[in-house]
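User: Study the shape:
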Amino acid sequence: MKTGIRRIEEVADGIRMFELAPLDGTPLPHYTPGAHIDVHLPAGLVRQYSLCGRPQQSDAYVIAVQNDAASRGGSRAMHALQVGDTLRIEGPRNHFPLAHDARHSVLLAGGIGITPLLSMAERLAQTQASFELHYCVRNRKRAAFLDRLDALDLRGRCTLYTDDAPADARMDFARVVRDPPPGSHLYVCGPSGFMDHALDAAKQAGWVDSHLHREYFSAPTADTRDNTPTAHAFTVRLARSGKVVRVSERETVVQALAAHGVRIETSCEQGVCGTCLTRVLAGDPEHRDLYLTDDERARNDQFLPCCSRSRSDELVLDL
């Protein structure tokens, strides 16, 4: 779908909000909190951005992008855009939905990770559900959407933490996740280190893995300066057609299959978004994604072929 940038607003230091409206004026597809869209940028870049507007709005999608110096180019490309520029988008998709059976929800946002959790908080407030939102930033100038967080329906349920505050006023993960009420669900989004710390604290506090929900923005960058292979070759057998494809040390399963005319839909190509999730019928996957939970990985009945590989000599896929 072709959209035009209708509005750009600086919502915090280094963070811009973009309002994308369809060029033909048709209503946009509805989405649920936690959803994202794929944005096609110049030079062939495709990036995923969480929708942080209000889902009932049908004339525009709202995303927010942090200008990250360590990014792979997507944030710089977004921050170079101006009102009136056009962008092709796909979606929305939701791999980070709210659990409908949650009796209480704990939302933990780090930096730009506030984007999906803001929509979640507003939805939970609208339905009078039990929840709390904890938002961590470097300093108050880096906190986005403070006006919405201070709205009447969210006031008192959101706590802002800054890294420059006194030690006793900073985020204490162990305290926040301690003694979860029965039926609680935890949602975490932000930088990888923030998320790992939060999830580790939750597991130590006894949270059930199926009640831990996360959304990573990107996978850690691997150090490949010595160009040494980090995996062995293996074969993939496609159960429906019987086709057997060899995957070399230096290509992904997605790339190997594409070279033989088998296309798997991908988006992030980093094991973050879950778009390419594929059923495994036999074999031992080597999970390298950030999408599956520990319990899902242990079952070994699905994997993400954009990044994950095989410990066994062959994987049999439901393709």
